[in-house]
Amino acid sequence: MNQERFEELCSAYALGAIEPDELKELEQELKNQRPEQLNTLREILNTAQVLPASAEQLTPADSVKDKLFTRIKAEGTPASGEANVTQIPASSSTAPWVRLAAVLLAVISLVLVYFTLNLADERSELQETVQIQRLELLNLEERLLATERYLDIIGSRDTYLVSMDGLDPSPSGFGRIYFDPESRSALVQLAGLPVTPSDKDYQLWVIRDGTPVSAGVFDVADDRFSFYQIDQFVEADLAGVDAIAVTLEPAGGMPEPTGDMFLLGTPSS
Amino acid sequence: MFILLALLKKLTADAGRETDLLHRIGRKDEAALSELYDLYKTLLYSLCVSIVKNRAEAEELLQEVFVQVWDKASGFDRTKGTPYAWLTTMTRNKAIDTIRSRAYKENNITDNDTDDTILPLLPSDESSPYSAAVAKERSSMIQTILKAIPEQQRTVLVAAYFDGYSQTEIAEKTGIPLGTVKSRMRQGLIKLQQMLAGKEEQL
Fold this sequence. Notes:
The complex is a heterodimer. By secondary structure, chain A is an alpha+beta fold.
């Protein structure tokens, strides 16, 4: 399959406009696990994700939230229809079989309505499940690809390893940098750092001759292991570097460090 | 791709916090649902309005989306995608289901209805001045980029994403050959990607 055709399939998929036969064609093609194709698909999916934010920004009425919570609370209680059925006055002059038939009819109607609504919900849920599973497949493929890239960096014969220890704000934190001078790629491993606040980012600094130079900005989503790859690392040779540090800075990073230092290490340590 | 990633990062800046909210909602924490609702109500409601083109319908849909979030949050898995992607996908699917089931697609689309579809000229009534400014600025920037895409390509993107048409349906509705629809869809997304990358300085 040529690149143009592959991009057409990815575009249709990202916009939810792909035909079933073409979806099969795309899935078949992705089985080849070609890195450049996975990268193309990821870029197109990322681009399409911007579209929801393009709509004119409007706020719903406050009553929507009130109704939502009323409904959620109500769903935790018995259905009102059942209560109505049992509240037919016993003193009614209607014949017993008529009352019984009415009750049965009401119950059957409720059951039918329930199943009709459920079928519609199930259809919608199944569509979402399929979409989620496709995304899961892509996610797994991306992770495999990333792992292969990480192994390339770690496995290179000339790779440097720099360890960073946690400082006062987070003494249990630590980090490692694997730097491959040949490809000038670095793999950064961070662990034990607090989750990045919404208005902040962690920033990596390479310090040479007392001057810090930014080497990248990271968003830590959880305090377990996080890996980040940096292409075109700021230093081609870590041998002359004084230290490497991680600070917490305003979102997007700063030209020079201004926030608390969380990790610090030296190439010789 | 740096800028696209940066923009996505802005759109999903609180993924960790939102994941935590979803986990709490999965444990039936109403305060967490309230917080997530406040975070996403504008984005998702605006998306609904863009698709169903009716505020009352959009409000019903928004309620449906959050009822589903309440029911399904325990199954949310961060490794499968961000809360942003999960919520916008769920919302779009419900909105597209609505317009399909209610036969909203009676009118043929034309190359001229793009602006009304994606850029509805409705007044904004954001309640929080800060979030209003940020959301409007972000929306305005993406709208500007979209407007700069050739109209023929933009029409196809809008018809697919906001009107829920497949490529075959777009070809039938517009009379454009299917191959051309596919080509314009690809060119449009690539153009959007390139233009987002060109907005680096503004981000």
